[in-house]
Structures are given as C-alpha cells and as structure tokens.
C-alpha cells in the first residue's frame, strides 16, 4: 500500500479550515490541524478520526514564526512525511477607513500576511529537507481581487497574499514546489457572520441587511458553503494541479470576473 501524503491546515478549528481538513482526509491525506484554540482543532481531528481518517491537532498561533515552524516539524515527525500546507488561518476586522488604528493594522498584518509567510518558509524548508516536491496553498479572497467597502485592512492583506503567492511561486519553482491561492466569495462561517453583523450594526440595520451588502452580486444567487472552497483546495492539493503555480483561483459563485 502506498504511504499517505501529509497535509497541514491552519485555522482548522472551524469554518473553511475545518471543511478543508475533512475534505483532504477524504482525499486520502493524513491531516495536521493547526489552530490557536487546541480544544477546537481537537474536536475536528476527532471527527476525522471517527470517520477512519488520520489526524492530529496542534496548537499554534500563526503570527508566531517559531510556533509555525514547530507545528510543521511536529506534523512531519508524527506522520513521517510532509507534502502540503494550507495557510488558511486569518482574521477579518471590519474597518471603515476612519476607524483604522495602528493596532488593528498590525494584528491583521501579523496574522494574515505574517502567518502565510511563516507557513511558506516552514513548509519549503521541510520539503527541501525531505528531498521532494510539495504544494503550498494560501487563503486570499474575492476581497483580495476587488475593493470591498468596510474591509480596507483585511482587503490589503488579501491583495498581499496574491502577491506573495506569485512571488514565491517563482522563487520556489526550481525546488519543485508549487504555490497557489484560493479566493472564496461570501462563505457562511463565523468570520463572515461577524462581518455582516458589524456592518449591519454600524448602519443600524438587521443582520440580513449586512449579509446582503456582500451577497447581492453573486451570479449563482446563493451564499457559499465551506465545502465549496474545500473542493477548490482539494484540486490545488492534488495531482491535477501539478502544472499550475502562482495562481489565485476565484471560487466565489460569480462575483469577480477576471
Ligand atoms: N468566510 C468568508 O466569506 C471568506 C473567508 N476567506 C478566508 O478564508 C480563511 C478562513 O476563513 P473562515 O473560515 O471564514 O474564518 P473563521 O474566522 O470562521 O475561522 C478562522 C480560523 O482561523 C483561526 N485563527 C485566527 N487567527 C489565528 C492565528 N493567529 N493562529 C492560528 N489560528 C488562527 C481561528 O481561530 C479560526 O478557527 C481566512 O483566511 C479568510 O480570510 C476568504 C474569503 C471569504
Ligand atoms: C471575508 C471575505 O473574505 C469576504 C467578504 O470576501
């Protein structure tokens, strides 16, 4: 029997990250689930195990470079290989332009941009140590393709991730490492619910109005589920995307057309 490939997913305790971890397990990967809250990643890891998957939960804050390197090391040691990293963890502060503070900007940069850079560094180092190719997959957003009102800080980090994806794809190609990104639309998760609530509160309107501000231009006329995004990541993690690198794939139900 062939050994299973190993994937690490950050921010895997809920939302899109949890769906990606479950999908990659179904695809035949052993999965390491990384998050700031151990109890949440443990819960998803247990669900995967009870479905006959191989999973471990690892506590790490992706803003902390040492913790990200330690998480990759732990996953590789536990499963005996390391093949894919999904830099999925992120935060999305709602920031009408006049509300932006140095603290909010710094925190979003550290987690969304820093966390992705540390994940790329740690994974690329491990692939090289193991002497084989690998796949790096980063979370951008439709808000990293076009400006979204009230999301200046968040959008800036998601535009940055497309740039980092393209740049590192060129740098790492000679090592057989591909780097791609996924750009979801409006996905029903705790993050998106918080954004919709904040925008609604700011306008003195109900939650549904807040969500509609983001959802009204979706061509397919439905909000996205985390599983929609997991399907896209499954493709990026699998062999069918071997000839793709430096790309940011929109999976948004038809919001942004490039
Ligand atoms: N929900 C949406 O509509 C969209 C989400 N995205 C992106 O997809 C990714 C996942 O988003 P959701 O699942 O919606 O978010 P979420 O907020 O529901 O889940 C994110 C997970 O990341 C974890 N996390 C946050 N900061 C962390 C840190 N410093 N270290 C480790 N873990 C950390 C959280 O604890 C949480 O479990 C994010 O990068 C987000 O920007 C992109 C486009 C749309
Ligand atoms: C949260 C997000 O990435 C949106 C609204 O596109």
Automatic annotation (TrEMBL):
Q: Which PROSITE patterns match?
A: ADH_SHORT
Q: Which Pfam families match?
A: adh_short
Q: For this protein, what reaction is catalysed? A: (S)-acetoin + NAD(+) = diacetyl + NADH + H(+)
| Biological classification of the source | Bacteria, Bacillati, Bacillota, Bacilli, Lactobacillales
Positions the record marks as coiled coil are: none
The protein's GO terms of the molecular function aspect are: diacetyl reductase ((S)-acetoin forming) (NAD+) activity
Which protein family is named in the record?
Answer: Belongs to the short-chain dehydrogenases/reductases (SDR) family.
Q: Which keywords does UniProt give here?
A: NAD, Oxidoreductase
InterPro entries in the cross-refs: 23BDH, NAD(P)-bd_dom_sf, Sc_DH/Rdtase_CS, SDR, SDR_fam
What is the active site of this protein?
154
Catalytic activity, EC: 1.1.1.304
Q: What is this protein called?
A: diacetyl reductase [(S)-acetoin forming]
Please tell me where NAD(+) binds in this chain.
14-16, 61-62, 88, 154, 158, 184-189
Family annotation (SUPFAM superfamilies): NAD(P)-binding Rossmann-fold domains
